[in-house]
Amino acid sequence: MATIESIQKAYIDFVLTQGEQPKSVYIFAKKNKMTEAEFYQFFGSFDALEQGIWSGFAQKTLNEVQGQEVYAQYSAREKALSFFYAFFELLKGSRSFAVYSVKKQPKSFTTPFVFEGLKNSFEAFATQIINEGIETAELSDRKFFSKRYKDALWVQFVFVLNFWINDSSAGFEKTDEAIEKGVNVTFDLFQRSPIDNLFEYGKFLAKNGGMPEKMGF
User: Fold this and answer.
1) In Å, how far are 45, 132, 187 from 135, measured between CA atoms?
2) pLDDT tens digits for 36-87?
3) What is the number of helices (H) and of strands (E) in the chain?
4) Domain-by-domain residue ranges, the chain?
5) How confident is the model at residue 210 (pLDDT cuts 50, 70, 90)?
6) CA triplet 56, 123, 103: central angle to 5 degrees?
7) Segment 146-179, tens digit of pLDDT
8) What are phi and psi of 204, to 5 degrees?
């Protein structure tokens, strides 16, 4: 009997041996001894199937990192680093599929359909840890900009994914370095900085009449 996992496994095997998606659901179903109805019971298309695989990677990663006893004690920055490291460690086991899937996507400024589920899961996670960071004052609550923090983290995630796809270093150690540097730089931007202090000072002066006309010395 067909299951989500068995269909996904059969699909990955097909695209990696053939280098492309099946020509039709009928051909794919027949090759894997199932009916079209069984396939459509779980997926509306091959792209939807592929989207489910990527969403699964995100969910497995979240289950792993959030299941650790120490996770609740992590700062927002540490939670982000934990997710990044765990995700790409998990992806090592499916690298051939990941390379195939990423490289076949059209170059575009919009998120490809197959990655929409992954993006939704990632942004929900990012929003949660960012809100926690703002509540604990780990991160700066900037008017208008705070809502864009999750977008900055997603951009960083996409960058690391593409970096990993092209990484040929032993054990993908360069990707680990890219994660450490990239996530830390991103969170440095989220934290309070001298610029924030300058803005606060400017607001204070504006609210309290500005600079005196004559200093008195």
Assistant:
1) 42, 5, 15
2) 999 999 999 999 999 999 999 999 999 999 999 999 999 999 999 999 999 9
3) 10, 0
4) 75-94+112-211
5) low
6) 55
7) 999 999 999 999 999 999 999 999 999 999 999 9
8) -65, -45
CA 78 to each of CA 8, 24, 82, 94: distance values in angstroms, whole numbers, following the listed order:
32, 44, 6, 25
Compute the distance between CA of residue 156 and CA of residue 20 in angstroms, rounded to an integer.
28
Q: What single DSSP character describes residue 214?
A: -
In the three-class reduction of DSSP (H, G, I as helix; E, B as strand; rest coil), residue 11 is classed as: helix
Average pLDDT, the chain: 91
**C-alpha radius of gyration, the chain, whole number:** 23
Sequence-ordered list of residues with C-beta below 8 angstroms from that of 25, at least 6 positions apart, any chain: 36, 39, 40, 46
Measured distance CA(69)–CA(13) in Å, rounded? 36
Give pLDDT tens digits for 119-130. Answer: 999 999 999 999
Q: What is the pLDDT of residues 87-132, one digit of tens each?
A: 999 999 999 999 999 999 988 778 999 999 999 999 999 999 999 9
Q: Which residue has the tokens 């899937």?
A: 101
Encoded amino acid at 132, one letter: E
Q: Read out DSSP for 37-104? A: HHHHHH-SSHHHHHHHHHHHHHHHHHHHHHTSGGGGG--HHHHHHHHHHHHHHHHGGGHHHHHHHHHT
Amino acid at 33: K
Task: Provide the token pair at 77.
Answer: 């920055």
